Amino acid sequence: MKRAPLIGVTSDIEASPGGKPPRPFYILDSTTFDALRAEDAAPVMLPHEVGQIPRYLEALDGIVISGGGYQFPHPDLFGAGADGADAPEKLNRAAFERALITAAIAADLPLLGVCGGFQMLNAVCGGKLIVSLAASRPSEIQHRQTESYAEGTHTIHAEPGSDFASWFGPEAALVNSKHSQGVIEVGPRARVAARAPDGLVEAIEVPQRRFALGVQWHPEFHITPSDRRIFERFVGAARGR
Q1: To 5 degrees, how large is the angle CA 57–CA 216–CA 183?
Q2: Quick check: is 157 catalytic?
Q3: pTM of the model
Q4: Measuring CA to CA, how many Å separate 149 from each of 49, 79, 143?
Q5: Three-class SS of residue 54?
Q6: Which residue of 84, 165, 175, 176 is 20 to 30 Å from 203, comparing CA positions?
Q7: CB of 144 within 8 A of CB of 200?
Q8: How far apart (Å, rounded) are the C-alpha atoms in residues 144 and 67?
Q9: H or E segment at 158?
Q10: Nearest to 230, CA basis, from 240, 241, 220
Q11: 39, 159, 202, 220: which is the annotated catalytic residue?
Q12: How does pLDDT run across 41-100, given as a tens digit for each residue?
C-alpha cells in the first residue's frame, strides 16, 4: 500500500504563567488536521526548532504554515508602526517559520500558508505587511468578521493568468475572514493569486514551484467546495513528490 503523504503543520505557541512550572504550550486548531486527513494525508505538528528544518524537509512531503499568533506585530515583519512587544516564544515562532518557508521554497517542497502563514510567505518573498487594515486602508468589506470561522463574509476572485486561477476557477468564492493585518505589497518573488472585491490581496503564489500558495482566509473550514479544492491540490502535489 502506498503511504499517505506526510504533512508538517506549524503551530502557535502560548505561555502559561499559571503552569507548574510556568512554561509555553504548542497549540493548533484541530480543523487543519481534519482538512488534511480528509484528503488522506497524515498531518504532524512541527516544533519551532530551526536546527531541525533539514530533517523536517527530508522527512516531509508538504508543509502548512498555520495562522494566528502574532498579537504584537514585530518591526522585522511589519515595519514602522509595529510595537515589537511580542513575547520571546512568538518571536521564535516567526523566525522558525521564516526559515522553514525559505528552505521549503528552495527545496520545492509543496507549501500552503494560511492567514498568518500567507502574510509570512509574502514577507519571505520580499513583500510588505500592514499592522492595521482598518486604520490604514478603510473598506466596506469586513475583513475581520465577528461571525464564526465556519461562516463566510466576503468573496474572492482568482487573479487572471495565475496558476491558482487555472484550477480554482473564474467564479467568485465565498470565504471567511478574521485578520487585522494584511498584505499591502506583494513581494517580487511572488505574484497575486486572488483578490477581494475591494482589491485587497487575498492569495499569493510563488511561480515555478510545484505548489507554493498562501491564502488570507481559512480554507480548512470548507466554507465552499472551493476551499476543499485547495487542500486537494496541495495534498496532490505532496503525493506527487
Answers
A1: 100
A2: no
A3: 0.92
A4: 29, 29, 12
A5: helix
A6: 84
A7: no
A8: 14
A9: strand 154-158
A10: 220
A11: 220
A12: 999 999 999 999 999 999 999 999 998 755 545 556 666 555 555 677 888 888 999 999
CA distance linking residue 85 with residue 139, whole number of Å: 28
| Residues sharing a CB contact under 8 Å with residue 135, sequence separation 6 or more, in sequence order | none
Place of cell 476551499: 227
Residues 6 or more apart whose Cβ sits within 8 Å of residue 17: none
Find where cell 465577528 sits. 146
CB neighbour burial string for 144-153, b if at least 16 within 10 angstroms, e if fewer: ebeeebeebb
| Helical ranges in the chain per DSSP H | 30-37, 53-59, 75-78, 88-107, 116-124, 133-136, 163-168, 225-240
CA-wise closest residue to 226 among 184, 165, 162: 165
Select which of 39, 97, 115, 202 is catalytic: 115
User: Residue 65: in which H helix or E strand, if any?
Assistant: strand 62-65
Tabulate helix, strand, coil % of the chain (nearest 5): 35, 25, 40
Give catalytic status of residue 115 as yes or no: yes
**Range 162-170 average pLDDT:** 94
Q: Which helix (H) or strand (E) holds 129?
A: strand 128-130
218 labelled catalytic = yes
Q: Which three cell numbers stand for residue 47?
A: 516544533
Contact criterion met (CB below 8 Å) for 29 and 64: no
DSSP state of 157: E
Query: What cell does 5 get?
Result: 503523504
For the record, the C-alpha cell of 240 comes out as 506527487
